Amino acid sequence: MRARDEITRSQSDSPTGEALGRVKSANSLRGRGEGEGPPLSKMAACDVLALGAHPDDVELGCGGTLAFLARRHRVGILDLTAGELATRGTPERRAREAADAAGALGVAWRACLSLPDGALRGDDEAQAAAVVAALRATTPRVLLLPHADDPHPDHAAAAALARRAAFLAGVARWHAESGAPHRPRLLLAYPGPRQLLRPDLAVDVTATYGAKRAALAAYASQFSPAEGAATHLSTAYYMAAVEGRDRAVGNTIACELGEGFMALGPLPGGELAWLLARSDA
Ligand SMILES: [Zn+2]
User: Under a CB-based contact definition with an 8 Å cutoff, are residues 85 and 121 in contact?
Assistant: First the structure.
């Protein structure tokens, strides 16, 4: 499918390949050799960028919204790591599952920065530079990012990295070599799978929840009880809890299924209106 095609495409054939090359170089400096981890996809300009620490994070937190937004905007997904520390699944398999999940959601592309799983740091210069390069290369108007209070340390670090990078990407002289300055106009934080937030914004995802279920089902290595050692993630009640949370959020806005987001400051009304406008309006 399209997303898998893009995730296996050479980075050298894209205008953003240069930025990706710098990211790869940054990884190599940290002891990751060339060719390790999943292949990088072709990043491209997008309207909305959803950023997560691991493959499956954005699906769990806001997959229904991504499918909703993909019907009216160009949506990209950026995984900071390949999830190589996971109890089950290899990075290669997780990359294939992530590509399939992206196809289920209908987003334009998905890429992985191959930063080190388990060692994301919000104050790391090279990691921030990698995220800044990605933001400048893809110029998203809206950035969806993890919530800072997520108990998973990688998720919290990804939240800090994303927020820092979203600001620094607009500072022209900060790593000027990585591209023209760009700053997303709207940042929204989605909840981690173990977080119960009182959202500032709730999106009705009833119509696209099937795509979220299909995307999560693509991650058999993580969520299927038949795939190996039992983990919390592979229990039926884990996925039921995710959907239960989404049902509870939906109930707050009088619909069946919803996804909640937290504001990182005053929400710019015009940007929200643009983001959620019906494509047939
Ligand atoms: Zn995660």
Answer: no
